[in-house]
Structure formats: C-alpha cells, structure tokens
Structures
1.
Amino acid sequence: MKEFVYDVFTRKERGDRLQHVGYVDAFDDETAKVYAWTTYDEEKWFEMCVVKRTNVLPVNRTDGLFVEAQKAAHV
Amino acid sequence: MSQFTDEELKQKVQAGYMVEGPEDMTEGYRKALRVQLTVQADTELMSAPSYWMAARHAPSTNTQVSAHAIIQDELAHANIAYRLLEDIGESKEHLVYGRQPHEFKHPYGFDQPLDNWAELVVATGFFDRAGITLLTDVHENTSYAPLKRALVKISMEETFHLRHGEVWMRRLAKAGGEARELVQRAVDWMFPMTIEWFGLPDDMKRHSGQLDYKLKGLTNDQLRQVWMSSTVPLCEELGLNAPAHWDDEKGEYVLDYPFPCQYDAVDKHWAFDEGEISWDAVFERWKGRGPMNEIYVESVQRSRMDVERWLAA
C-alpha cells in the first residue's frame, strides 16, 4: 500500500502559534485528514492542518527530514 | 551520518546538545535509539490487543467507551513510535507486519491474558504506571528531540489511562467481597510482573549506551523504585497486599519475595516458595514468550495481506 508522509500542525487556542505536533502516513489528502484527527486527539484543537511532506520546501538547511523528502520525491 | 565521533557525541549530548535526525547521529547512537524505540513501539502496539480482548468485560457502555479510548490512544502511540523509527531508516511495514510473534520486543506482561474487568483495570493501573515511569524519564532526559516532542501527547494520555485504572481499582477494592478478591488476585500476579518488566538489576546490567547517549536518565533499579513509590502506597491505601515495603534503614522500597523468580503462566502464579532463579532463566522464559503472544500478534497482522491483495487486483 503506497502511503505518503503528512506532517500535522495544530493550534490549541485562537491566537496560539500553529505548531508541528507529529505526522501520519496516508494514501491521500482525505485519509491524512482523518488519520491526523483521530491520532492527535489529545486536545480540542482550535485548528488542525496537514501538509504533505514533499510540499514542505526547506529554506536554510541542506540536511534533515524535509530535505530527504524532497530528494526522495524527485528521484 | 554524524560529523562527530561517538565520544564527541556522547560528550555533546551530556552537555545538552539535541539530536534532530540521522544526520546528527553516529551509528552507535542510531542503534541504541533503534532498540529503545522498538521496545516502546512494540509495547504500545501489543497493549492494544491485550486491552481490546479484555474490554469485552467492561460493565457498561461508559466503561466500554473509556476502555476503547485507551486502546485507541495506545495504537496512536505505537504508530508515532514506528514513524520515529522510519525516520531513522527502519521500515514500519516490516516492523508491524513482517515479523514473527516471538520477534516483537514488548515485555512479557503483554503476552498474558487479561481475564476479567479487575485484571484490565489493574493492568492499566500497574502497566501504564510502568509506561509513564519509563517514558517520563525519557521525556525529561532524552537527547533525541523528535521523541521528546512526541512524548508531550503520549504522557498526557497515559496519565488518563492510569487514572482510569486507579479509580476502578479503588472502586472494586472498596466494594469488598468478590470484587476485592479479584483485584487482589490481579495484584498478586501483576505486581511481580511489572517489577520484572524494568529488567536486569543495575549491578548486572550490560552496558547499553542508553545512559551515555542520554536516551534515558535513570537506571533500571531507580525506575523500579519510582514505580514502587507510587504503587506500594496505593495498594496500602486500598488495603491490598503488595509484596514490597518501605525500608527505613535502606531508604528505599524492598521486595518481600525472591527476585527474580519463576512464573507459571497457566495458573498466573509466581513461585515465591521455590526461591530465586537466575536472570538467564528469566530471559529464557521471556524468549519463549507468553500464552497470548501469537494470538495478539495475529490479531494485529491478520487482514493486512488480504486487503493488500484486494487493492492490487
């Protein structure tokens, strides 16, 4: 089953920072939303978003998970 | 791989350096982290079928919901730990679906059947307390930043599991009669089971590097003491017999039975009267796994291949 990594970002209260809380593997955007909502259910989030990891563009680093994801996506 | 040597990395993490990914690690660090995360992930994963099969003993729809909420949390924690393993080059697919039952690294306690509601609540009271003890130490001390961040959620939820277990232990113990007897019987086999879970005593511990790499902060014996410092007073408060007591002279909790000792998994009985056994004998028992090992692993893996085949068709 081909799955992709989606990073999960949440904001607990109105006015809070949107922060990275983890990630899930999913087939597509819709399942990623469901998996994120059911996996990271430790708070009543004001906002939750998922981002496909390959859509995160590293700005200042040349190593790390986001760089690796970019490399893997362009093989 | 890391720009540091093993010695340099050990010194840096002791001074507060946080490792963010494989690019910062030495091979030694990666291996020690892999072992730690595999035990963590497998323990969370195998607690799920163990609690799930016991949840059918829940006495009401409310307790069904809370038991299943715990199971849902445990699966999410397992998923997070396997994801962390994937980041350091392991395959989640292989770890969850490609291994034989005896290859999982969870503690022997999660190879045992939980046969009634009292056993499920004592398991969440004792085993989840062990989980919190181990993971709180990791949360406070780990040099691996992604794990430290992930543990915020996990610690929050494990505290709820523990509260659920302790509230119900209290309720059943206070009810007296059969309820109390069942709780006592569960304590009788699960207390020594959890004590053993923390592993080799410090004076016998092989050097694993987990402390040097700052993947944890406390030793096995210290963690055992932390667990007992909550669990023994709880049992005393509830009038339950736990085979350990506080020793004023030593300034620590001491066990009232030969440790380690042999366990009869069929009768759920610790052979205190047969005396102390070697740790080699314990490892042999662990390696042979417990009565529910294959059933629990099969329940996790069973449908994967079928659905893969349907989707590929």
2.
Amino acid sequence: MLKRVHFIKIMLPLLLVAPQIAVTIIFFMWPAGQALYQSFLIEDAFGLSSEFVWFENFELLFDDEIYLQTFWRTAVFSSLVAVLAMSIALVLAGFAERVIKGAGAYRTLLIWPYAVAPVLAGALWVFMFNPTLGIFPFLLEKINIDWNHYLNGGQAMGLVVAAAAWKQIAYNFLFYLAAMQSIPKSVIEAAAIDGASPMRRFWTITFPLVSPTTFFLLVINIVYAFFDTFGIIHAVTQGGPANATTILVYKVYNDGFVGLDLGGSAAQSVVLMFIVIVMTVVQFRYVEKKVEY
Amino acid sequence: MANIKLDKLTKSYGDTEVLHHIDGQIEHGEFIVIVGPSGCGKSTLLRMVAGLETVTTGEVSIGDKMINDLEPADRDIAMVFQNYALYPHMSVEQNMAYGLKIRKLPKAEIKRRVEEAADILEIRDYLKRKPRQLSGGQRQRVAMGRAIVRDPQVFLFDEPLSNLDAKLRVQMRLEIRKLQRRLGVTSIYVTHDQVEAMTLGDRLMVLNGGYVEQFGTPIEVYEKPASIFVAGFIGSPSMNFVSATAANGVLTLSNGTTLATNTTAAGAVTVGIRPEHLFPNKDGVLKIEVDLPEKLGATTLVHGRISGAETAFTASLNGINAASTADVLSFDAPPEFLHIFDAETGKRIS
C-alpha cells in the first residue's frame, strides 16, 4: 500500500487524475446514464413527447418472444464464434511454435486480419459469398450446394460466424503463441522423453498449461462476439434474412434507429450493459484465481 | 546391456562446429560425468544422446544399436533436467506416473512402481502435492523419481544440482551416487562443478571448446592431467603453472630456480604443481613471496608470487599454519608431483 504522506496537498493528485476522470464521465458515465434514463421513457408514435414509465419497457421486452429468441441466437452466435476462433487460433499457434524457418513472416501474416476493420472484413466476405458474383457460391455449386445467404438463415448465420471468427483468430493466436512460448522448453522435452507423441504432449502438457489464457480469451471472445461484431453483421446480412442473424447488439440498433423505439432500444442496451458487468466481474474474479495449476 | 558408444560425434549449428569428433565407450552400469566450463558443449552432447538435438555426423549407440534417428521416446532413457522440468499442473504422483501411463502399463503396476520410487526417495508424503508446493530439494527428488519409475536403460542428468543450495547439493550428490550404485543403471551426468565430477564419476570426460581433453577415472585425471586445461580445471584450489626450460632432467624456471624432474622433456615447457603438493621446508628451492594467507581452518591457503618471477602461486598448508604469516616461504617441489606440459600445445609430456 502507498502511504498517504506521499501527497500532502490534495490538489495535485486531483489535477493529475482529472483528465482520466473527465474522459470517463463524458464518454462513459454520461451516455450510460442517458441510456438508463431513456430506458424508463416511452415515446409517442410521432416522437413528439415522452412519458416516464418506470420498468414498462423492460416488462415489454421480456414478454417479447422475438427478444427472447434473439437472446438465444446471441448465445449460439457467440459460442460458435468463440469456439471457432479459439480452436483455430490454438491449432495455428501450436504449429507456429514448431516452425523454425520463416517464423517471423508466418506470425506477422497471421496477425494481419486483426488490423482489418470489422466492416471491411464483412465486405470481403460479402464479395466472396455473394450468391451471384462470389467465388465460393460458384465453387459450392460444383458440389451441389446451393448457396444463398440472402434466403437461407442457416447459411447467413454460418457466414457471419465465419467472418467474425476469422477476424478474431489473429488476436487469439497472439495470446496463445505468447502463452506457449512461456512454457519452459524442458517441460515439453521431458514429456518427449517420457514417450509422449507430439499430439499427446499438446493435449496433456501444452493445453493444460495455457488454460489461464484459454479462460481469459473465452471472456474476451464472448464480449467481442456480443458487441464488436455489429459492423460485420451490418455489412454482411443486416440481421437478416428474417432476423436469422439479429443478435442483441444488432437489435438494439435496429429497434432504436430503424424502428425508432428509443425506450425499448435503451432498455435493451441496459440489459447488455448488465451482461457486460457480469462478464467483467466473472473475469476479474476467476481469471487469476480459479484457473491455476 | 546398456553400453553407450559415441563414435566421431560432431555437432554443427550452420557453419559453426560446436562439438568435434567426440569418441567414447561407456560400459554397462558405469557412471560417466561430462565436465567442463560453460559453453564447452557438454549439455549439447548429453542432449544428443537424449535425442533432443540432432547428430550432425558420427554415431550414438545404446546397447550396440545405432540410435541417431530414434525419437527420444524410443531410446529408453530418462533425463533429469537442471530446472527439474516437472509438469506444473500435475501432482507428484501424476508426474511420476505420466511416462508409465503413456506406455500403457496396468494401473496396479504403475501404482506399485510410483510408490516404490517414492519410498526410495522418501517423498511418499508429498505424492498428492503439486510441484509448486515443494521445496527445491523435494522437486529434485520428484524429478529423480520420474526418471527411476521408468526403469530405463540409461539415466541422463543435466546439471541437476546446480539450483540447490550448497548443503543440499552435497547431500543430493551422495544420494544420486548411492541410487545409481543400487540400480546399476548406466548414467551420464553433466556438470561444471569439478567437485561433483570427482565424487560422482566412475570416469570423467573433460570437455573444453567442443573437444574431449581427457577421458579417464577421477584419479587419472587428477594425477595425470592430459593438458594444461584439465590440470587447471580439476582440483581445488587450481594447479599453479610456471613456464620453464627443460634440459637433461633439470627444469629452469624463469627466475633461475632449478627443479629436478624425472622426465626427458626438453625445451620450453610449462610446469604445473598443485597447491597441496608444495611441502614447506626451510631449505626448499621454491621461494614464494606471500601476499595473502587464507585460513580455512583445516587448511591454510597461501597466495603469493614466486620470488623473482611475477607468477601467481598458491600453496595449501595443513592446519592453521603459523608460517603463513611470514613474508617469504620456501617449499620443496618433489619431481613426482610435477606436471610438465608442452609450452606450445599445452599437452602433457610423458
């Protein structure tokens, strides 16, 4: 613990933290407060007046079949994105660890996708999978798969999952690689001498030893899939077809800015805020304590 | 029979050859210590036997079977690492059982072997603990346990004691020796500590700069060091060296002192004499100007210079010797204790 005597006057320390506090208040606390306040209001159909209704927006929300479906869809979407992005990254990192020649180039290339903006990533995938122009539908047709994510909800979901996961692989890869490199080489060598095959070494030694990273990434990836995939979904499917790819964060946008139900949209963002708070608590609580060896 | 044969073994990284034509024949049950300063290639040599480094040229054989291209797993060896390399997420028991499980031994057999090893090493009480809950000495024992449960043909030790404190090191050194005697498993032990080397090894392989300087029993290495390097490396405190000219059984040191020798060496030589082989004698020919006496209790080390030649010299005297306070001491240097090396090549003469 720092001792209080470090600062005798209170002004200097306040001045020093003031910019950070100002940023937090203006860009985080105030909008969050506004959202909370909005969520207690219902606007009339013409947007001319609003009424304070306490929790009515929330009651409507949780009675809404479509919203509950969106919840479920978001859970499926995030788990798919997290599992896909993490497992591919794990495998790639496992291989990258073994690469000796050109390791630098290989690693740098694998990190590139992370620098691609979500909307651009979405645009890339849209072009590749465009049912009339794209290269993949053309190839898929040869094995008798009729690709049209504008009509087929399952295919649309698959596409946004793939696009979202693809972008996150780079990030996960970096963390896994760092975690693997921090495992003492001699531990792996000891396992090799003990007779474990490379595959077995990976699953019985490397994988358990990177488990703190796995847990950390799990939280990060779920948060990513919940919130940062908006750009991808907006560019690829706009939540369609028939809401098949509308996840919570997309519904917030859609209901608020397309449907102009500001109160309902605000209530949804408050729910999302609550989810983030829970996830953050879980992360802080368990990341450093639970997963240890 | 687990005899090991190293046949003209070399190791190169790119164009740099770090080990040069290493030859050696290790008999079944022998305890070989590879000793040398850091960077001499001793760990690399061990890792080549383990299969963790590839062999550039030459052959390694265990039990008359060439194993150059065999995976470490297929060599039937066990290795104890400097940092122990225990699996941090497994209990002591799981650590020891890991290799046996992979070999698909029956559960009961695994349990029996682990417990037997735990009894030998007195770690029975810690079987359920994780490595991080153990002290350095206990971890060391677990690492040994993991090696012995496998019942391998060969033990490889890579500086296993260097992370322990001095007292524990002496104790574990004895235990390793006893254990190896008891199990009779061919062992190769790498260390930079010459005391460990002398006490543990049936034979020592002294390595320097990727070359084998000498391969022999500790006594041979001590009594007949093959080169200046070996002479200076083995023995504590280090051997004293002084340049001299040899002719007709007489060595003339640079300050004019003459010593008798029973070799036929001639020309420029380097004379080596161990501190413990300098015998104080009022009429001794070798005069040393004392700089600093170090009283260690059982012995007193006298650091000084040969009179007339600014060559540093150390003598070891028995007990807390009063004479060590004198300014100049005289010593006898009997011919049988003189080591004569070629001044140019550093090799032993006769």
3.
Amino acid sequence: MSDTLKEFLVILDNFERALSHEQKDDCQSLREGVELIYKQLLDVLKRQGVEPIEIEDEKFDPRIQQAFITEESSEISEPTVSEELQKGYRLHDRLLRPSMVKVLMPKKEGEI
Amino acid sequence: MNHVIGIDLGTTYSCIAYLEGNEPRVIPNLEGLPTTPSVVSFTQTGEKLVGNLALRQAVTNPENTVTAVKRLMGKKYSSDEVQAIERKSPYTLGQAENGDVIVEIDGQKISPQEISAMILAYLKKCAEAYFGEELIDAVITVPAHFDDHQRQATKDAAKIAGLEVVRVINEPTSASLAYGLDQKKNQVIAVYDLGGGTFDITLMEISDGIFNVLATTGNTFLGGEDFDKLISDWLISDFNKKNEVDLSEDKLALQRIKEAAEKAKRELSFTTESEINLPFIFSDKSGSKHIKKTLSRGQLEELTKDLIAKTFPFIDQALTDAGLEPKGIDEVILVGGQTRMPLIKKTITDFFKKDPTEHINPDEIVAMGASIQSAILQGKMTDLVVLLDVTPLSLGIETENGIFTNIIEKNTTIPCKKTMAFTTVENNQRRVRVHVLQGEGDIAKDNISLAVFDLVGIALAPAGVPQIDVTFEIDADGLAKVSAKDVTTGRTQKIEVKPSSGLSPEEVNKIIKRTQVDDDENKEVVEDEQT
C-alpha cells in the first residue's frame, strides 16, 4: 500500500512543479509536461492492474459500456457506439468502470 | 445440507447473504459488488439482461427496461398506486385477465412475478458461482405491509427462478434478527428503513421469540435518490447563476454531477465539509468551465431537512396505530443506506430520546438477517429460538349484506388454523359460495379479495341441516389456505378455487417450462465452466 502511495506522491510532485512554473512557461511546454504526468499516472495504474478499455468493436456492449446518449440512425441495424464520452477501465479481468458512450440506435420502421 | 441463502429482494437494489459459522456474510454478484440493481431489460436481440448490465443500456432501450418491479407485485392494474407508477414509467403496463397488472414488452405480456424471477435467478447464479454448487433453498424477505397477494407473488417469483422458499420473513423482522434482538425478552422495536427509493417505518413487539408487527406504514416514493437530486439541483443552479449555462441539458455533465453529489453526500456522513471538483464540466469556444464548490454538512442538512421531515408524519401515524408514545419504544434500528446521514440519526435520537442501533451495514442488514433465519431453520443455530411472525392483516369472509366477518384476527401468531362451520340457507341447496378477504374494514368491499370458493356437491337436505367445516389456515410464510369438509357425510368436499389474483399453479409451471427452454443455452455454458 505505501509503495503504491509513494508512486502517487511522485505524480503529485510533478503537478506542483507544473503549477509553480505556469507563469514562466509557454502554453506548449506546459501541455507537454501535463501529458508526461498523464502517462506517469497511467503507468502507475497499469502496474496495479488497471487498464483502459479500448473500444474495438463498434457494437454496443453493456458488459463494458454504459450508454449515455442515444441518437437514431437509418444507416445501422443494431445499437452502435459512435463516440466515447469517458474512458472505461478494467482491474485485471474485472470491470472497474464502464466506458461512457454515445450509442446510435437503428431507426424504427415506419418512422420518418 | 446445502447452503441456504438469505435474499433481500429490494425495490432499487437486491442483496444476498449466507451464514459462515455464526457470522452473516454478503455474497458478491458476478461483478464483485455486494448489491445488484433490481433492473431487468429485454434487448432487441431477445437477450434478457439483469442488474448493472440492464442499467447500463437503459437509455438505449427505456421502454423495455423494467425498474422497481417490486412496486407492482401482487397489484391490480386499476389500483391508484399502479396508476401513479404508470404515469412515471417509461415502460408500458397493462392488465391480465384477472385484473392483475402486467408489463408489456414488445406486445408480450409479462407478469411482475416473472420479472422478479429474473432478478432472483441472477442472484441464485451469483451464489452458485460463489459456492461452486447448485443452490435451491432460500429465505426471502418482504416489507411488513405486504398482503397475501404480494407474498404469494414473491413466492411464485422464487419458484419460477428455481428456488425453494423455506420461509418468507418481514424485512424489519430480518433486520432485528441481524442485531440478535430476538434473544432479548419483551421489548418494542422501531425499524426506520430509508432505502434508495422507499421509506418504511415498522413498530414491532418481540416477546419470547415472537415478532408482532404493531404498526407499519411508509412512502413508496421517498428515498436516498431524492437527497442526491437536491444536491445536484443546487450545483446546477449555482453554475447557471455564475455562467448562464444550463447543465441539466448536458447528459454527461448531469451524470458527473449526480455521481459527485452522491459522493459528497456519503462523505458528509463522516466529515463536516466535502469539496466537489468537476474540472472541464463545460467547454465551448470561449473556453472551459469547472465546478469547484465546497458543501458543508450544515448546507446539506439545510438542503435536505424537508425530506427528513417528510418521514415523521409516518412515524406519528405508526405510533398512533400502535397506541404508543415515542418513549414506549425500547430500541430503534436503522436500515437503508440513507440512514447513515448524521442529521437523520440525530433527529431520530431526539424524537425517541435514545440512540439508534446502527453498527451493521444498513444496505446489507436485511439480507444478513435472512441468512440467520435460514440457519435457524436448518437447525444450525440451536441457541436461537425459532422465529415466529404474526399475520399483518385479518383474514375473513364476506357474509350477508356485504359485511366482513373476521375469522383469523390481525396479529395472530402464525402458522395458525381456525375452523368455522357453514350451512345452507335454502332447502336442497347444492352449492355454497365463500368469498375470502384480507383486511381490517368492516365492509367486505373495503378489503382485499383473496379468492372465491364454491363448495359443491352438498347432499340434498333442508336449509340449515348440512354442516360444512371450512378450515382457514395461514402458514409460516403468511400465506392463506382454505379447505372444507362435509361433516354430515364425513366426506371431504370438492372445492373449486378461483383465485382473484396472482398466477395459478398451472401458470407458474408453464412459465418455469418456458424459462427452462430459454436458459438451456446458458446452463450449458455454466456447466462447461465447472468441468
């Protein structure tokens, strides 16, 4: 537990650095710094078994996705993911949090 | 003997538990969570989804996603409660031939029992995955105010799910068992149950292991979700004032706010201040906006005090019904996640002038109590007395001029049996019709109609000569049974039973057969995993 927390403290240090150097740096280098911290955090989580869920199949899957917004479309025949609104994560093989997605629904017959 | 599980089949969430040694333990669902949303969905591809899966796709399929089906159990379509639910539900309700409410999914009529059975079947599967063996026996809990129809509907649901219900017990009785209150002698208990979507207050008397419900009432549309909504509304209105942006139109923002509101509410049960930080809650061409607010416990209490106040008229009502004063209550038990809120505990303490008992997880306590009851029934916990409940409503028949004649009085310890002699009113009468009802009204039509019995084949005789003994029985689950015997001839009379509500045994068996066909594929998968 304390080893994991120590890894988080390193990330916290880097956030402090980013915030205190905000005045001097230009926007681009600040962005680069934040990106590095983001990768660092992702790595720490990965070592703990947390992995982001990549949306590979377009077919909506409630086992790993939570539908948030829906829209009707005549171009599809089954519920299809059109946009990821918030990333989902797995802890080892278990679902930690579903991906929040926008789902296109097949247009019902007889409707214009 | 195999494990017997305790099931709390809740309105918004359900929970299962078993007894390990002398300790009740909650069985996690297939996703590793202690409670499962009581939600069932029917997808376009013909799949049936239960719990979190059903919830996650609800917006894609609102008209085929059934929530809070417990509110429909054993109810007539024309009842005021069902009519109120229909106005709020995205799914369609309809009427069965006997007037019972049914859910219409894609033109197919599905009884609330079948939908509850799908939740129970999922919970059964979770327990079987946990133990690695098939489970059949279960103790299942119902609200204390459930009448015969609602209890029978719950039992039928369990049967459809492949469960053998060894006992149906009242939720407040179950909570008291989890605290071991049955072991103390002669006391009066108040059970304050504020769950996700419903509120119940029950006053009970326990003496020598007998639980006597003195009064029970509540509001089926008041719960923790209302508290979350008030916090969300506060955040949305504050953001709107500052930025002139209405976040209630943005579904993703709304969901983030809802989650943050619930988290802040939970945190404020243990801290005095909670920070709500929602970076990038809104972005447009002019830039990004964030929510950065501090909610204090005091502010939360100010926001939600009216909701807490709404529960007190029900407590007053229950006390009046039971003929009690607050000081007459020996013990107060808190059930339901929302009762973690300190203001609720304080208001209850001030009202009853005593600290409530609250050290067991209020979301899991009912299932835990049910698991203890299952162990008592199995004979594992022999130091505990066998739990006895009482019938919450009087059982009787309709007599001349529509008057209700009480046969088994309210609060009679169950199981119980009472025989009454009937005779004919006309010469050579071959048939006597008996209308069985449950309730406290003096007029038959004010009560709940349970069944109509025709006693047929009575021997020809002058009026008043035949004697037909009709036996009324309420079993340990609180379910009524009626049988009849012609004393004159000594023969048992043939009775035509016409239940005025619920599913007939044939209907239940038909559903079981149909479900078995549906589940065959799933079963093969489970079996494969076990080998």
